[in-house]
Design goal:
The structure holds 2 protein chains of 2 kinds. Chain A has 3 domains: 182 residues, Aldehyde oxidase/xanthine dehydrogenase, molybdopterin binding domain (Aldehyde Oxidoreductase, domain 4), CATH 3.30.365.10; 199 residues, Aldehyde Oxidoreductase, domain 3, CATH 3.90.1170.50; 384 residues, Aldehyde Oxidoreductase, domain 4 (2-Layer Sandwich). In chain A, helix 7 crosses helix 8, helix 11 packs parallel to helix 21 and helix 19 packs across helix 21. Helix content of chain A is 28%, strand content 24%. Chain A contains 23 helices and 29 strands. Chain A is an alpha+beta fold. In chain A, the strands form 7 sheets. In chain A, strands 3-5-1-12-9-10-11 form a 7-stranded mixed sheet, with helices on both faces. A 6-stranded mixed sheet of chain A has the order 7-15-14-13-8-29. A 4-stranded mixed sheet of chain A has the order 18-26-27-28, sandwiched between helices. Chain A is globular and about 85 Å long. Chain B has 2 domains: 81 residues, Ubiquitin-like (UB roll); 68 residues, DNA polymerase, domain 1 (Orthogonal Bundle). In chain B, strands 2-1-5-3-4 form a 5-stranded mixed sheet, sandwiched between helices. The N and C termini of chain B lie far apart (52 Å). The chains are: A alpha+beta, B alpha+beta. The interface between A and B is large, with 61 and 60 residues.
Chain lengths: 819, 162
């Protein structure tokens, strides 16, 4: 490291990641890599039925198998724990959610018992010896059917309706009265899928009888949330639960809801006398019983437009399917409203939002959580209206986008979009894909009878939640705002060490945090050690700490920046004392003995070891007025939020709004009905970029998740609740042979809401799902097809094009023309 | 039942070291590597041969170690991700994955690098299509494959004439 490193701005550079060294060498430490003395292996026994009463359960044969240490049942757990906290209001708050079924199973794959044994193989054998007798009940796998309450999942609630609320803003009636066109769309459906992190859930739990504490090594991605649920459930002081994570093989939100399995492992450890218990989820367990993304149906949508095709109002009824237990829900019933109008200017809207339980796997916050469903709905609405009114799809967007000069833009429900420039993104995307050339090719293709379409998808990735929105779903909840913690210190020998309350899963937090600290202290990022993973014992977490909801660049790095600034202030004070100069005469830089503080005028210097030594190991040399200097600086960053108005459902729900604009060219094969992507562009805007290589990588990754979801990945249940896609071979996650080359474009509209101008951007807003639906719509509109589902594979396109006798468009979409 | 299972003695050469082990017949190769030999760089993602997180080289060919029994590797030479570097120096494939930002969470990366190794040992100038086919059995949920393709192209370039 030479003097050329001075005064470099590390933020903004594509710095190679610090994480790479261990990950490339196979030295990453993932949860399943951890082995402990006296470790036991846990295996769950799971329900083959979607809905059934448990008549009897017998674990005696399993317990008699040599090598089995204990078995645990749901009924046993219910006797010694509290049901999990319910986030929602009455009557659903009455339900009793335990980590294993107590007397009734509510989805296929729900655990009913667990066995812990000396080896994983013995645990497998033992699980097969557990005898369970079931009496099947009527399963309900469709949310709209569930709302009829003919077969109840939770008798205590007396209904399958988890939540219902109307979000109404502006003057909807007047807008419809004045409309030139009213477009009615009977039904749209956003399918159930999961981003399926490649590493399954893993929990190691040790309930140590010596100190009555519970130690977790796991890959949960929101540990602060998990410990709040676990402490209440297990009746233990929250400080008695330690959660550590290390490297995590992807989460995409799915690993937020692993706390039920964490509970079972702790209780099994307790029963086994404190021996540590490890559970490694199989892929089939993950597919059937970890978490899926929210499925949503949009009914009776009415759209009012003026004579120019400008949308003036939308009215609709949305039914969200959260699976068998609400768990993180009904937060999704408000989180979608962070992007209430999407990227569009309409001011009047009424959305009647309902959530139902069904006999399917519980949902969890999957990448793009709750917003992508709504953004897809809005993109379908805009796109269908454009086609029905004969307005070109790009022109339709330009007429309806929020205008660049309107930022910061307050939405009808009080959210403040910080910055953006959607027309510019559209322009860049069109140039990158060669819009005019593809339009020409499309005309040629149509003449040959080929089904080719060009689609635009514009989306938002709202980041850094205001947890006050939880009070909109349940006014009694004690949550609001958002915060994150970080610690920055000089260790005894002067090393710069950073800890932050996030738990990354590939987002490169060690690298970007080092970039931020390097800029504050004017040193090379290699000199900054960032602790890997999450640990409650580092004391840098708040109730919101974890890695979820597109926020690290804002909440995490703001906390790191604050802690580094605090440390710098202390170092300056100490340096001024040591060098006998004034604080403003101190400068930070590199010297012959590593990083140091220098006096500008007399050239005297002290290195980091010298500073750290004064505080940590030479304190008699320190004057009492510097006793407050610890060089160990904790900083809690708080987002500047207010509690939203619960009655009006009004307020700012997120701090930053990254945007994505994609264009796809898609062709449906006339013979095989396979949809093929011919060209693809992604343009993103996440404000000021901390590390362009990391941002670009996340854009490609989110694009692959979206394309996979749009064309290949679907959680399929049959009529009685059997999951038909319980292995990767059935679920078919997107592979390298299905993924097109993505042409990448980028603009930066710095956010006025974050210290650096950055916006959170990890989720991507599911732009490809909107874009591919739009491209297929463009390809098939002339054939009388309305793209009504977010999932379109060869099978569904075959059924749409060949299987339907009459034009589906006539029944699905009706247009009233009043001009 | 476990008490009736006879362990089987096998000899395997793993990353250049000869190993003698006694394994249960039902032990998978990946379990042997991870549990018996503590080589935890090889991962398990799907259990059904789809995702390739468990890919290792057996006698120079990429195999999925979750779909082989340890006993089937008797007498074979196995290379895992831990065996790619030489004297602390990264293999050109490892270096290229780092330089091209070809990984995020890093869980699939060992398998992808070994599939790339299989390809590049047989085809020094692979086309983009060749690369896509070679890693069709390796699922990555983070990168969207774009930088993985770039990494393998870069590795091919850097290994030319090596």
């Amino acid at each position: 490291m030479g003097s050329e490193d001075h005064n470099k701005n590390w933020v903004g550079k594509p710095l190679p990641r610090k994480e790479e060294n261990r990950l490339l060498r196979g030295r990453g430490k993932f949860a399943d890599d951890i082995k402990l003395r006296d470790l036991l292996y846990l295996r769950f026994v799971r329900s083959p039925y979607a809905h059934a009463k448990m008549v009897s359960l017998d674990t005696s044969a399993a317990e008699a198998l040599p090598g089995v240490v204990c078995a645990l049942t749901g009924a046993e757990i219910a006797l010694q724990t509290q049901p999990f906290i319910e986030i929602g209001p009455e009557p659903f708050a009455k339900i009793k959610d335990y980590p294993m079924a107590v007397s009734k199973v509510r989805y296929q794959g729900e655990p009913v018992a667990a066995v812990a044994a000396e080896s994983a193989a013995i645990a497998d054998d033992a699980a097969e010896l557990v005898q369970v007798e079931y009496e099947s009940l009527d399963p309900v796998v469709d949310a709209e059917q569930a709302l009829e309450d003919k077969s109840l999942l939770h008798d205590e609630a007396g209904t399958n309706r988890v939540w219902n609320g109307v979000f109404e803003y502006g003057d909807v009636e007047k807008a419809f009265k004045d409309a030139a066109y009213v477009v009615n769309i009977d039904r749209l459906h956003f399918h159930r899928f999961s981003s399926t992190p490649l590493e399954n859930n893993v929990v190691i739990a040790e309930w140590d009888p010596k100190d009555e504490r519970i130690y977790y090594s796991c890959n949960n991605s929101f540990p602060s949330f998990a410990i709040q649920f676990l402490a209440a459930h297990l009746n233990v002081h929250i400080d008695r639960i330690r959660v550590e994570t290390s490297d995590i093989g992807g989460s995409f939100g799915i690993k937020i809801t692993s706390y039920p399995q964490m509970a079972v492992c702790a209780l099994a450890s307790k029963k086994a006398g404190g021996r540590p218990v490890k559970w490694v989820e199989t892929r089939s367990e993950h597919m059937t019983s970890s978490a899926h993304g929210n499925e949503r149906t949009f009914r009776d949508t009415q759209v009012a437009l003026d004579k120019d095709g400008v949308i003036t109002a939308i009215a609709s009824r949305h039914i969200d399917d959260c699976g068998a237990y609400p768990r993180y829900e009904p937060l999704g019933c408000v989180i979608w409203s962070q992007v209430f109008p999407g990227v569009y200017r309409f001011k009047n809207a009424r959305i009647d939002f309902i959530q139902a339980v069904t006999n399917k796997c519980p949902v969890g916050p999957n990448r793009g959580y709750s917003r992508m469903q709504h953004l897809w709905f809005l993109e379908r609405v805009v796109d269908i209206c454009a086609h029905e009114l004969g307005i070109p799809s790009d022109e339709m967007r330009l007429r309806n986008y929020i205008r660049t000069e309107e930022f910061p833009y307050t939405t009808p429900n009080g959210c403040v979009y910080d910055s953006g420039n959607y027309p510019k993104m559209l322009d860049i995307a069109k140039r990158l894909i060669g819009w005019d050339e593809w339009k020409r090719k499309q005309i040629e293709a149509r003449k040959q009878g080929r089904l080719m379409g060009i689609g635009i998808g514009t989306t938002l990735d709202s980041g850094t939640n205001n947890f006050g929105q939880s009070q909109i779903v349940n006014p009694g909840l004690p949550y609001s705002g958002n915060s994150q913690g970080a610690n920055c210190k000089l260790d005894i020998y002067g090393e710069v060490v950073v800890a932050v309350g996030s738990c990354p899963q590939g987002q490169g937090h060690e690298t970007t945090a080092a970039q931020v600290v390097a800029d504050v202290l004017n040193i090379h990022p290699d000199l900054v050690t960032v602790r890997t993973g999450f640990d409650t014992e580092r004391n840098v977490h708040t109730g919101f700490s974890g890695t979820y909801a597109s926020q690290f660049a804002v909440s995490g790095l703001s906390a790191v920046h604050g802690a580094a600034q605090k440390l710098k202030t202390e170092m300056k004070q100490l340096g001024a004392f040591a060098l006998r100069v004034k604080e403003d005469e101190i400068e930070f830089g590199m010297g012959a003995q590593g990083p140091e503080l220098r006096a500008k005028n007399n050239g005297k210097c002290i290195n980091y070891w010298g500073l750290a030594n004064l505080v940590n190991a030479n304190s008699a040399a320190l004057p009492p007025e510097l006793y407050d200097v610890t060089l160990n600086c904790r900083y809690i960053w708080r987002a500047p939020f207010k509690v939203p108005d619960k009655q009006k459902k009004y307020g700012n729900l997120t701090l930053t709004y990254a945007s994505q604009l994609h264009i796809a060219v898609v062709e449906v094969d006339r013979e095989t009905f396979i949809p093929r992507i011919l060209d693809y562009v992604a343009v993103d805007d996440c404000g000021t970029v901390i590390n362009p290589a990391i941002v670009e990588g996340q854009v490609y990754g989110a694009t692959a998740h979206g394309i996979g979801a749009a064309l290949m990945e679907n959680c399929v249940y049959d009529a009685v609740g059997n999951m038909l896609t319980s292995t990767f071979s059935d679920y078919t996650p997107i592979t390298a042979v299905n993924m097109p080359i993505v042409k990448y474009g980028h603009i930066e509209t710095p956010s006025p809401h974050s210290y650096s101008g950055a916006k959170g951007m990890g989720e991507g807003g599911a732009a490809p799902i909107h874009t591919i639906s739009a491209a297929l719509q463009d390809a098939l509109f002339d054939n009388g097809i309305v793209i009504e589902d977010s999932f379109n594979n060869a099978d569904s396109l075959f059924r749409a094009l060949v299987g339907k006798e009459t034009s589906q468009a006539e029944t699905l979409v009706k247009v009233e023309r009043r001009v | 039942m476990p008490d009736t299972i006879q362990s089987v003695a096998i000899k395997v050469n793993v990353n250049g070291k000869p190993r003698s082990l006694k394994v249960e017949p039902r032990m998978l190769l990946v379990e042997m590597l991870r549990e018996a030999l503590d080589l935890t760089g090889t991962h398990v993602g799907c259990d059904t041969t789809y995702c390739g997180a468990c890919t290792v080289l057996m006698n120079g060919a990429a195999v999925k170690s979750c779909t082989m029994f340890a006993v089937q590797a008797d007498g074979a030479e196995i290379t895992t991700v831990e065996g790619l570097e030489r004297d602390g120096q990264l293999h050109p494939i490892q270096k290229a994955f780092g330089d091209a930002y070809g990984l995020q969470c890093g869980y699939c990366t060992p398998g992808l690098m070994l599939s790339a190794h299989h390809l590049l040992s047989r085809n020094q100038q692979p086309s983009e299509k060749d690369i896509r086919k070679a890693i069709a059995g390796n699922t990555c949920r983070c990168t969207g494959y774009q930088n993985v393709l770039k990494a393998i192209q870069l590795a091919a370039q850097n290994m030319k004439g090596a």
